[in-house]
Amino acid sequence: MQTATPLISINLGSGGLSMVQLIVLLTVFTLAPSFIMFFTSFLRILVVFAFMRSALGLQQFPPAQVFTALALILTFLIMGPVFSQVYQQAWVPYSQGQMDFQQFLSAAEKPVGDWMLKQVKPEELNTMASISGTDPKNPNFTTLASAFMVSELKTAFTMGLLLYLPFIALDVIIASVLMSLGMFMIPPAMISLPLKILLFVAANGWDTVIMGLVRSFR
């Protein structure tokens, strides 16, 4: 006795997608977290948020998932025009059979590469170009991506340092005051933490940090 094998039919839209296009789409979704980390504004935003949380002295609150979600939302807001260009210039023609997979990759790389080139600092680009042996005036996508990541980390660390300085000054002032009053048994963090939060809220810190991050992208 033979058992019939069930068949699954997938129809996406009026034209549908071929098996190759469906595999490409699933691959893009699978690699999307890596793409977002490596080729978008997500890395800089997340690192700055990590510095801000450490500067405030907040160890467990807010949870890291909150900062990750906020960084992801800001990334989609900042990268919206670039994603729209990738969709219109690469995915739509490819899904309609107007270009092959290699042409699809080239068309998708161009708007992303143009955006990354605006953010990369010349010194990082020259360094990566010398390592890869390419022309820094006409770098390939791999060289540009590596220079972009290093440049993003450098920018994020610079912004994080600027966030740290006022809170470090507050820690030093609180510790000096407690020592001058002879209160050696009171941990300075017990006093400085609520004052840091009060200073951050009073200075409209969330809006300042977020707007500073958004405006730091060209």
Automatic annotation (TrEMBL):
GO cellular component terms given for this protein: bacterial-type flagellum basal body; plasma membrane
Keywords: Bacterial flagellum, Bacterial flagellum biogenesis, Bacterial flagellum protein export, Cell membrane, Cell projection, Cilium, Flagellum, Membrane, Protein transport, Transmembrane, Transmembrane helix, Transport
Cross-referenced PROSITE patterns: FLIP_2
Transmembrane segments: 7-29, 35-52, 64-83, 161-185, 197-217
Pfam families: FliP
Cell compartments where the protein resides: Bacterial flagellum basal body; Cell membrane
Family membership: Belongs to the FliP/MopC/SpaP family.
Protein name: Flagellar biosynthetic protein FliP
Source organism: Coprothermobacter proteolyticus (strain ATCC 35245 / DSM 5265 / OCM 4 / BT)
Lineage: Bacteria, Pseudomonadati, Coprothermobacterota, Coprothermobacteria, Coprothermobacterales
